[in-house]
Amino acid sequence: MAYSSLDAQIQERIAVFTSELSELIRAAALEAVGDALGTNAGYQRGPGRPRKTGMPSPLLGKGGRKVGGKRVRRTAADLEQLMTDIHTYVKTNPGQRLEEMSAGMGISSHEMKRPIVLLLEKKQLGKKGQRRGTTYTAKGRR
After folding, report:
1. Strand partners, 60
2. d(CA 100, CA 140)
3. From residue 50, how far is each of 55, 58, 69 by CA, in Å?
4. Domains (range + CATH), the chain
5. For residue 28, what are the CA distances in angstroms to 10, 14, 34, 44, 80?
6. With contact defined as beta carbons under 8 Å apart, do 135 and 100 qualify?
7. At 39, is the pLDDT very low, low, confident or very high (cuts 50, 70, 90)?
8. Which of 63, 101, 109, 131 is most exposed by smallest CB count within 10 Å?
9. Cα 66 to Cα 60: distance, rounded to the nearest angstrom
10. 94 SS3 class
11. Contact, 102 vs 109, CB < 8 A?
12. Helix (H) or strand (E) holding 120
């Protein structure tokens, strides 16, 4: 009989040990997943969007227009001036690609696309090549 009571005590201690070990492993796994996802239990999310202040936006550029974020429409005068500048540049530097022209003029290639399309439609620019290999030459007067 002593053997069976000893055996029962051993089995009970093994059951308690395995349940405690399971809890520790489960907690360690949750902590590892939280660390991997960046959502640890000790992490507290910061406050929401800051309140508006009376300060001017740092996104305002030349002429009080927004820079970055939402799209800004150019005025017809701005577009015409840019077309004139591009035509003059291409006249003095024929055979350059859009990336080269934008680097030479200090204007982003994205801003130059629309004026170049308009100059091509008006037949004031000519183009040769396809896609990124397209080179531009000046035609006519501006």
Report:
1. 66
2. 22
3. 13, 15, 18
4. 75-138 (1.10.10.10)
5. 27, 21, 10, 20, 65
6. no
7. low
8. 131
9. 4
10. coil
11. yes
12. helix 109-121
- What φ, ψ does residue 130 adopt, rounded to 5°? -135, 150
Tokens read off for 72: 């800004």
Q: What is the per-residue pLDDT across 79-122, written as a single tens digit (0 to 9) for each? A: 999 999 999 999 999 999 999 999 999 998 889 999 999 999 99
| Residue 136, strand partner residues | 96, 127
Type of residue at 13 = R
Environment class of 46 (CB within 10 Å of its CB; exposed 0-12, middle 13-18, buried 19+) = exposed
CA distance readout (Å), 61 to 29, 76, 77, 129: 50, 18, 17, 35
pTM here? 0.50
Q: Nearest CA to 30 among 41, 16, 19?
A: 41
Q: Which pLDDT score, from 0 to 100, does residue 5 have?
A: 83
